[in-house]
Amino acid sequence: MKMQEVRKIARKWKVNVRVGRSKQDIIRDIQVMEGYTACFGTKEECDQYDCMWREDCIKQ
To answer: Residue 34 contacts by C-beta under 8 Å, 6 or more apart in sequence?
Structure first.
């Protein structure tokens, strides 16, 4: 997912999207707001099949 799309989703959740914040940090904040663990980019395997970030996360 492109950064522009991530920022759009983040704004819906009222997550800080100021310049200089990494995509990873923004996505982790969104994950927390969604009720998930802030785990984007921290695991080699994912058991959260309903996570919208899964595809980007696993290919890192």
So the answer is: 13
d(CA 38, CA 17): 16
pLDDT at 13: 97
pLDDT at 50 over 90: no
Q: Are 30 and 56 in contact (CB under 8 A)?
A: no
The residue ranking higher by pLDDT, 54 or 33, is 33
User: Which is nearest to 46 in space by CA: 32, 37, 34?
Assistant: 37
The two structure tokens encoding residue 51: 């996570």
| pLDDT number for residue 60 | 60
Exposed / middle / buried, residue 25 (Cβ in 10 Å: 0-12, 13-18, 19+)? middle
